[in-house]
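Reply to dn_fold:

You asked what the input looked like. This is it:
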Amino acid sequence: MPKQRGFLPFVFYIFILLISVAALWGTLYFGESLTPSTLRPTAEGAMTLRGAFADFQTSVSHHADSTIGVLLLQILIILIAARAMGWLFRKIHQPAVIGEIVAGILLGPSLFGRVAPETFDALFPAPSLSNIQLLSNFGLILFMFAVGMELRLGDIRKQLRSSIIISHTGIFIPFLLSLPLSYTIYSDYAAGLTDFTPFALFIGIAMSITAFPVLARIIQENNLQRTHLGKLSLSTAAAGDITAWLMLAAIIAIAQSGSLMSTGYNLLFLIVYLLVIFGVIRPLFRAAGKVYNNTEVISHGMVGTIFILLLLSSYITELLSMHPLFGAFMLGLVMPEDLSFRKIVTDKIEDVSLMLFLPLFFVSSGLQTELGLIDSPERWALLGVFTLIAVVGKVGGTYISARASGESPRNSIFLGAFMNTRGLMELVVLGIGYEMKILPPAIYAVLVLMTVITTVMTMPMVHMINWVICLGERRRDRIETIDKQAGAKVLLSFGRPSSGVTLLRLTDQLLRRGEAHPNVTALHITTDKNINSIEVDKFFEDSFRPIMQEAQQLSQPLETEHLVADEVEGTILTKLTAEKYNLLIVGAGVRLSSDEDDREATTMRQQMKRRVGSFSVRTTESLLTIHSMLRDKMAYFVHRAPCSVGVLLSRSFHSPKNILLYIANPGDLRLLPYARTMAENNKATLRIIASRDLPPQSLSLHPGEELLPDKLLSLPEGCDLVVVSYTHWQEAFDTCENLLSQLPSTLILNLK
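and this is what came back:
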């Protein structure tokens, strides 16, 4: 340990500081004479506060008008508007991406440019728009790479026949229906801008594409990702996306080629490119995925290699007259399918692309969208026709092909509604067409508005279909139901994987009767709806692997369910009510936990309460999301759950050998069978503390059981589990902090 030297270090520090200040002042003072007189500030400007402030204003104005200053202000405004509209649309149960698209339209000439034209021109001067477009295009490259990673070829392969038939039919029918419309409007809108062929092809692909990223989030928000319908929807959308982007690459090649022969060369080299991607790059990535399969991080060298290949792939497709986005998409598609690898890479890319670059793209699109061009009944009718063809063609084509593939009418109509989701991908395609001057401004505005309408109507359409089916058939309001085995239905809700194992062990010991096991569903809820499909699968794998292994060791049948929801407790209550569970098993809240992190969190809350008072939902605690983390859920579930509730306060709970049961009133006698079952399953000793007010004939002891005095000052030696009713817990344990700190694992039961 270093020796303390009193004030000497402080004196030394002050000495060095004074010398440094003196040297700096002397150098500047004498060096000022070297400055040419023409460059020296005037006496008035240098010596007066007004002159100094004027210089400051000039400096601020200069930097505000600089390229980087204007760009940073634009990005700031764009991000604020995008986040605000995204939040608003989530509140009305619409994808946040639609809100961000609307934010782009509102910031464009259609609204902001009309309401405040001078401010609009100052914030978004025409020369600066190229900078936004450049950044947004780079962001799209990153995003399309992430989209490609979300599309896993292995998932498509599992339902290859159905996915290909349904996706291709859902593409071809609206594509074909759009061709007569393109023929009708070409002369009036695009004859002087581009050839008919690329115009008609772009219209067709815009009408037939499905936005996989938006659909994936709709599927997970409705907790359908593990149902047959959810898996089929995602695999169909993935197959459709791959096909659509291949078609788009060919269309772009045709549009940019000078002759038919040149187009042939482009397509030939496209085939060579795809052979290299799938034949060389994919096997290399597969080997890399196996290397990094069990690692938590990826080396900087590997990340650098991925980015180099990403830019190279994008550059090659740009040289081949395809768009760079196609190269980014294809490279993402051939990434290793290992979830850990993809999640790590996605985490490094997606947040930046989603939070920063995509809003720039939306606003860039909005700045190009002039809704004022839809200024006549004819053009509004054109919007209606485009929307009708897009919806009827997509929904109808998907329904017919799904029925031909053997799907039920119910799943087929839902599948059609899901495939009608366009959103972001549609906007990307339209942006490419507008950038290449294939789509005229009026048609571009019509198609952007059609995109917003068809995406917004997805969830209302799903809810309406579900309502009609339930009304006609009087079935439960679910897309799929699961047949459950007979016996007690137990919902086990857990947060940490380790707590899930503990709760399953408790449930087995509490309810197993010989070889008869309870019907247990393990539920884990993720509270962030902005996660992608890779993250959902990774969270499921990480969260459920330990509890599934424990279930296998216990020979306990187990159903698993992973939900994505904003509010945990309400979601659990909804599930309890809808599926009529008999018992809910949860872990104790953070306040009662013995985990070191939980105790630290509880201490932090107590300190914050002492400083600023009690918290409510509307306080800073809520804004920091600490409220939901620290809330004691025991009372919430006991008072609101429609079934019995068991809360485990775990202190390294495993297999208790000395069980203590408190019976405070005649109602607590219902706890006795559960305590006896636990004792029998663990070959444990059961000791009972019964109230003196209890009728003597109401309690008959079994062999090996022991009755302890009513007034117990301390817990029996060796006691490793306490079983108590919630009423008695409230009366005694919850108010006695000293006893609470001494408690072993405790099971608090509220039986209904």
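The longest helix spans residues 260-291.
Hope that clears it up.
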